[in-house]
Design brief:
single chain, about 240 residues, alpha+beta, five-stranded antiparallel beta sheet, four-stranded mixed beta sheet, 16 strands, about 30% helix, about 25% strand
């Protein structure tokens, strides 16, 4: 890995299970204008127009109000925080170039432009509320999965094409119980807001699943009788 005109030491850039990683310290050492600090629980990478927070083991990083998914979690090696190369490039607005022949990559900080959230505020408002009402108490991955189902429906021609319309869809019947009992209007939990941001940024943890339900509450229903099972996360089965 090369950052601008400096080759990164092998101990600071490596590939694990097919995913290239780089430490945040390597970026600070190779390029001007970046500062790295530690508050006892998380690392903070700052620069002009950039505020990134990475917590060891977390499935996401927070940057400029966004939340980006980190599939295998934020890594720590030799006491240094590391992120997947593509996640760091996206978060910091860096240009990433691959050389497949040489098995190398190049990060350019020239004209770095960290992005802000691009999704509508209304989508975050409603998606966080349905996630909170449907999966309060579920692990973050399960909450992201619920968000994925809603967004998969938005993209599917069988359903309405906005987040709010999908949530309140009643063409055949009310689709989500929180709409019927009113809990969709409750203030969402912090984790639900986080899961909604991660989902809206494009994280995909359940493929093309369009349905979910809790077997403990409804062991036999239309979903498990008519839709192929995909996976279980927490108390929910996804189909």
């Amino acid at each position: 890995l090369q950052i601008d005109d400096r080759i990164v030491e092998p101990s600071a850039a490596w590939t694990e299970e097919g995913t290239p990683y780089v430490t945040l310290a390597a970026l600070c050492q190779a390029a001007d204008g970046y500062t790295l600090s530690w508050n006892g629980t998380a690392a903070a990478l700052t620069a002009e127009d950039l505020e990134l927070t990475a917590t060891p083991g977390a499935l996401y990083v927070e940057v400029n109000g966004r939340a980006l998914y980190v599939e295998h979690g934020v890594q720590v090696r030799d006491g240094r925080i590391a992120l997947p190369l593509e996640v760091l490039a996206e978060a910091a607005g860096l240009q990433l170039t691959w050389d497949e022949v040489e098995g190398a990559a190049w990060l350019s900080t020239d004209q770095a432009q960290p992005a802000s959230a691009s999704y509508p505020a209304e989508d975050l408002y409603w998606l966080s509320r349905i996630i909170s009402a449907e999966s309060r108490g579920e692990p973050l991955l399960g909450q992201i999965a619920v968000g994925n189902v809603v967004l998969n429906r938005v993209a599917d021609k069988q359903f309405p094409n906005t987040v709010k319309e999908v949530i309140f869809d009643d063409k055949y019947a009310i689709q989500f119980e929180p709409v019927e009992n009113g809990t969709v209007y409750d203030e969402p939990t912090d984790s639900a807001v986080l899961a909604a941001k991660i989902s809206l940024e494009g994280a995909d943890v359940i493929g093309s699943a369009l349905y979910f339900y809790a077997p403990a509450l409804s062991p036999v229903n239309w979903i498990n009788q008519n839709r192929p099972f995909y996976m279980t996360i927490g108390c929910h089965d996804f189909h």
